[in-house]
Design a protein that fits this description.
By secondary structure, the chain is α/β, with parallel strands linked by helices. The chain has a single domain, classed as HUPs (Rossmann fold, 3-Layer(aba) Sandwich). Helices cover 46% and strands 19% of the residues. It contains five helices and five strands; from the N terminus they run βαβααβαβαβ. A five-stranded parallel sheet has the order 3-2-1-4-5, sandwiched between helices. Helix 1 links the parallel strand 1 and strand 2. Helix 4 runs parallel beside helix 5. The longest helix has 17 residues. The termini are far apart. The mean pLDDT is 88.
């Protein structure tokens, strides 16, 4: 059986490359596996539908900047993350998917569903840090 080397950084709210705990964890995991980090952003139809034109425009510019900063390696997919993330994990043979923890009800449920679906793809969901300066419940 081949060793899995790819690691996914599933970026959502926190698109910065500097001082990003989930990205750092993904890089460390990929380095330990002698593999690559695959940056992934999923355009979730449920969240996209609720966004207004200014927010969509800002997101498009931010994703373009992130793609440029990652040397054109950003993978952007449209669909339900419960389906998309495990599918991409299978495609790139990722052992882990690193993400900043979600605390809102939809995000918690979505992440639990992704976590359950990942073993079928051979990966596991690793929550590291928070998109907030102080994670909810930390104080």
């Amino acid at each position: 059986m081949a060793t899995t080397a790819s690691t996914i950084w599933w970026c959502r709210r926190d698109l910065r490359l500097g001082d990003n705990p989930a990205l750092v964890a993904a890089v460390e995991a990929a380095r330990a596996a002698d593999g690559d980090v695959v940056p992934l952003f999923v355009l979730d139809p449920r969240l996209w539908a609720a966004a207004g034109a200014p927010r969509r425009s800002y997101l498009a510019r931010s994703l373009a900047a992130l793609d440029e900063a990652t040397g054109g390696r950003l993978v952007v997919r449209h669909g339900d993350p419960r389906d998309v993330v495990p599918a991409v994990a299978r495609e790139v043979e990722a052992g882990e998917v690193h993400v900043a923890a979600s605390f809102e009800p939809y995000g918690v449920q979505r992440d639990a569903a992704v976590e359950q679906a990942l073993p079928d793809g051979g990966g596991r969901l690793v929550r590291t840090g928070s998109p907030y300066a102080v994670a909810p419940g930390a104080c």
